[in-house]
């Protein structure tokens, strides 16, 4: 009821803009998580190891900061809407090309290019959304917007669960290639953006007053922004380690440590995503009352008691409950990030700052899954339980601690002024 009330409070322009940005992030995540679900199948197809294919996720994440900077500059200069359209067409094109990669080397290159396009989408889309939406209820909409990422993961898991087992071994194209071909459909969203979404009123106001990216980014301004920039990179490093540390290797962990068949793996990932969706909305709503910092700290610390159920259970049912509760907390904390990051970012660089700090944090955390596999092979005989459990302990405390050091900026007004 609360969600419907908040959505009804928006006018048609605001609803269309929010829906487009939500769907863009959903379809972006959908393509990314297809890779994490298909690691084993891709390794088998290219006659290589899972650890080698996991490098593709590193290259995707490593290129995202460059994409955030490039597309952020374009969004500041040419507008949020046309830049977001170009983003979506680009990552759809590279996602489709990945389906036809003939070698593991070409696959790596295409996933790096996908990461370049993917890197711009979050920052540009979040700037367009929050510069169009009202300040009241921003925490709720932040939680809902960020869960586009979760919905993308859910759709990828659902497709894997329903389609992958029936494609495998048919003698046609490899099952994972068909999955990546389906992942190219987001390009159609560009048409919706073209005809249903308007430009950010904040960007238009700044342009009407003669402000420009070049004028606002003097060296003195950059130095003034540097402390906030470094702080947000540290915060986003902890957040990305929190998310990727509990998600990227989870399908492989379920298959390897618990010997769960692919169909049940897809179902368990879907259950975790339902928890994430509920957590993002609930904690985003809570941040309107607790403040952004209080809600993030609470959600991060509450992930700790979920570890035994999430990683060490001995039945599919209990693993499902653990996965639901873990992602309720992890993505609950994450649901507050779009609003918190935009509220902490200076106005003249709002299309660049959130996306670039987010993606630089992603870059620093991008080796997480590779390190998890290496540590498991070295200390646990290849078993991932202990490594993933320690990951949650360390990064949950890091998220809570770094958040506590920052300032509260809930509800700050956005405008076209520097």
Task: Report on this structure.
This protein has helices at residues 2-8, 12-37, 39-45, 50-78, 80-98, 104-132, 138-162, 164-167, 175-182, 189-196, 201-208, 213-216, 219-247, 250-258, 262-290, 292-302, 307-312, 316-335, 337-343, 353-365, 368-379, 385-405. The chain has 418 residues and is mainly α. 56% of the residues are buried. It has one domain (14-208, 221-405): Up-down Bundle (Growth Hormone, Chain: A).
Summed up:
The protein has 22 helices and no strands. It is mostly helical.
Number of helices: 22
**Which CATH class is shown?**
Mainly Alpha
- Major beta sheet summary: none
Percent of residues in helices comes to over 70%
Assign the CATH topology. Answer: Growth Hormone, Chain: A
Radius of gyration: 20 Å
Query: How large a portion of the residues is in β-strands, by DSSP E?
Result: under 5%
Distance between the termini: 37 Å
**Which structural category fits the helices and strands?**
mainly alpha
Can you say what the CATH homologous superfamily is? MFS general substrate transporter like domains
Overall, the morphology is: globular
Uncertain spans, ≥5 residues at pLDDT below 50?
none
Q: Which whole number gives the mean pLDDT?
A: 83
**Architecture, according to CATH?**
Up-down Bundle
Number of beta strands: 0
What is the chain-wise order of helices and strands? HHHHHHHHHHHHHHHHHHHHHH
The structural domain count equals 1
Membrane topology: Multi-pass membrane protein
Transmembrane segments: 21-44, 56-75, 84-104, 142-163, 175-193, 222-243, 263-283, 295-312, 384-405
InterPro entries: MFS (IPR011701), MFS_dom (IPR020846), MFS_trans_sf (IPR036259), Sugar_transporter_CS (IPR005829)
Subcellular location: Membrane
